[in-house]
């Protein structure tokens, strides 16, 4: 997995980077076909914003979270990404499993 981290009007410190990587590990635990992750952290007046785009095979998943605390916005972002990745994984399993069902043999 390639992680690209950018900050707009905010400095990306090593503790923020470590915290974000720890939260993204939870997403990767559910789905290991993630190739790249692009994260943008920004500050707009009193709101801290975290946005991420995850590229999985055949699709891009995007999520954003806004809060007054950067760590809280990273938490919310990780939760949203986790739900999207699980939903994407379930869709793929349903589509792949549909072709494997066979009709019972008539006696």
Any overview of this molecule?
By secondary structure, the protein is α+β, with helices and mostly antiparallel strands. It has a single domain, classed as 2-Layer Sandwich (Double Stranded RNA Binding Domain), CATH 3.30.160. Helix content is 43%, strand content 35%. It contains two helices and four strands. Helix 1 packs parallel to helix 2. The mean pLDDT is 86.
In short:
This protein is an alpha+beta fold and 107 residues long.
* Terminal Cα span: 51 Å
Shape: elongated
**Secondary structure category:** alpha+beta
Structural domains: how many: 1
The amount of beta strand, in percent, is: 25-35%
> Which homologous superfamily in CATH is the superfamily?
Ribosome hibernation promotion factor-like
CATH class division: Alpha Beta
Per-chain topology:
Layout: E1 2-8, H1 14-30, E2 34-44, E3 47-56, E4 59-67, H2 70-98
Parallel strand pairs: 1-2
Antiparallel strand pairs: 2-3, 3-4
Helix pairs in contact: 1-2
């Amino acid at each position: 997995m390639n992680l690209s981290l950018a900050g707009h009007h905010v400095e990306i410190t090593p503790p923020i980077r470590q915290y974000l990587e720890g939260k993204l590990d939870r997403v990767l635990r559910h789905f290991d076909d993630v190739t790249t992750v692009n994260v943008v952290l920004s500050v707009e007046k009193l709101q801290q914003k975290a946005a991420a785009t995850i590229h999985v095979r055949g699709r891009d998943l995007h999520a954003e979270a806004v809060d007054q605390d950067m760590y809280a916005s990273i938490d919310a972002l990780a939760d949203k990404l986790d739900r999207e990745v699980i939903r994407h994984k379930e869709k793929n399993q349903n589509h792949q499993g549909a072709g494997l069902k066979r009709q019972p043999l008539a006696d």
